[in-house]
Amino acid sequence: MDNIIKEFSDLSGAYGRLFRCSVCFHDYSGEIFKAADISLTTHMNHFCQLVRKDKFCDKKCVEFDSSNVRHFFSSGKKELIKKCHAGAIEFAVPVFSENKLCGAVFLGPFRSAKTGKLPGMITQALSGELSSEAKMVFKGLPEISPSNLEDMLNMTKLLAEKLGRTISIFNRDYILGQGYPEKISYFINREFKNGISIANLAEFLSLSVSRTSRLVKIHAGKTFPELLAERRIEHAVFLLENSFFNMEMISKQCGFSEPSYFYRTFRKIRKTTPADYRGSLKKKRNSSSSV
């Protein structure tokens, strides 16, 4: 995985120098870029950092990028031109590995040229006045006009496709030389958002269902449903901490058939409810920011 991070880092640097912008990757699995430098997964450019000094603006940024953009891509949208609440433009393209949505690449920020409105752009409601420093930085952002829109989208798509292929190749090469414990873990990490059963894992391992059940118990010390539930709740915790998804959306994103089943499973494993967990996070963040 370190090779993927390094390759994306090198490509991001090249794109940044070429287009005078920043590139980042939002990892929807919470696993791919876990060890990456924060600059690869966060909008660390000067303008965004100035805007996000305001707590309200910071929340709007996270909400739009983590919730709205992801929802668009989960619904089948192939690309996105967005104008954020601070007036900056970004290109966003989904990243797929093995035909599964695993994240999104963002390229920006830019400002719109005065020659015309960009077609198909999704605009977030503008917030209050920017600081004088943010306004100055905004004026220095590179311009995007309708004439160069297609080129920018194609370049962003190329980067997303390259990253998706790299992740897919890594996954295939990795699994070839692994034993049953690693293969079981890999399969659950890859498929936990879907309605899978022990039969699907058995097919993946080319074994009978009974032998697969025994192997899971031997190597993990748990049953397949227990392993699957734990992985789903682990991802739910990631979404509760890093998105503004409502509980129904989190339930769906984690592979639960019904929100009520999600609530019961979360409480059983985490000894609290999803809403209470998110509420405790909010209290911690508020108390730490007031110090």
Structural notes for this entry:
This protein is an alpha/beta fold and 291 residues long. It folds into two domains: 2-172, Beta-Lactamase (2-Layer Sandwich); 178-289, Arc Repressor Mutant, subunit A, CATH 1.10.10. 58% of the residues lie in helices and 12% in strands. It is built from 13 helices and six strands. Strands 1, 2, 3, 4, 5 and 6 form a six-stranded mixed beta sheet that branches. The longest helix is centred in the middle third of the chain and has 28 residues, at 149-176. The protein is globular. The mean pLDDT is 85.
Order of helices and strands: HEHHHEEEEHEHHHHHHHH
Extract low-pLDDT stretches: none
- The domain tally reads 2
Largest sheet: 6 strands, mixed
